[in-house]
Amino acid sequence: MTALGEKEREAADEAFMKATGIKRVFGKGNAAVTALADVHLTVPAGSMVALKGRSGSGKTTLLNILSALDEPTEGHVFLRGREITGLSSRERSALRRKEIGLVFQSFGLVPLMSAYENVEFGLRVAGTPTKGNREAAERALSRVGMKERMKHRPMELSGGEQQRVAIARAIAHEPGLLIADEPTAELDTKMGLQVMRVFRDLVNHSGMTIILTTHDPGIMELVDHVIALEDGRIVSQTTNNKPLI
Ligand SMILES: Nc1ncnc2c1ncn2[C@@H]1O[C@H](COP(=O)(O)OP(=O)(O)OP(=O)(O)O)[C@@H](O)[C@H]1O
Ligand SMILES: [Mg+2]
Questions:
Q1: What is the second-level CATH architecture of the domain 44-69+86-239?
Q2: Does residue 61 line the site of ligand 1, with CB under 6 A?
Q3: pLDDT tens digits for 47-101?
Q4: C-alpha 125 – ligand 2 centre gap (Å)
Q5: Would you say the CB of residue 163 lies under 6 angstroms from ligand 1?
Q6: Which member of 36, 122, 166, 204 lies 3.0 to 4.6 Å from 107 by CB, making a disulfide possible if both were Cys?
């Protein structure tokens, strides 16, 4: 356990997610790469946040730390006031199974399984009780507008539809936090917009908080907050008072 001052703990309690003094160094000695340095950020509950920056600026490294997939070299991350850094890998995976959903650029669906089976299988892998899995999987597919097509296999679906199934899989256990690394990078503008509309609906109607990365300038207009990274450091944080969706 890391000792935290009273003030630090109080500040962490106010935000849905908060990161302080994050540094991540890969490798050692001459080969060491500092992927993140001096990163401080606060994510309000029920908001959509985009991380932007050039290739190699540290976006994925930061997302991995915020989703408890990776540990920073220095610094602390809090989710709803609870520190998620300094946990064992078993505690981290328990936390992800309960509170975090993950979405990736390349969808990651199992080709031989239908959309429904992909989502239901995701719940089983996560160890969620099997009773009620059917309802949870169907509810998640409805949320992303894919219930009608849930018997189709990934190859019978468009890229945007596949990504919506991947989102259903990520939210079937009803996490409070959804983390998405370049979720629209493989989609054309129209399908990317559909995916962003699904995200907006989840934020507005399920109170979910979403943190995503993107290279697409169009996406920045659709989110609530944009955090720009350059060489592993935050160089600007802006708020859209009127996001376009
Ligand atoms: N496991 C690792 N070992 C060594 N260096 C790494 C590792 N992961 C990332 N890096 C380095 O850290 C830096 C940040 O990488 P990261 O993947 O976070 O960038 P990114 O902003 O997500 O880029 P992209 O837009 O290309 O996805 C890069 O210099 C990268 O080479
Ligand atoms: Mg990346």
A1: 3-Layer(aba) Sandwich (3.40)
A2: yes
A3: 999 999 999 999 999 999 999 999 999 999 999 999 999 999 999 999 999 999 9
A4: 25
A5: no
A6: 166
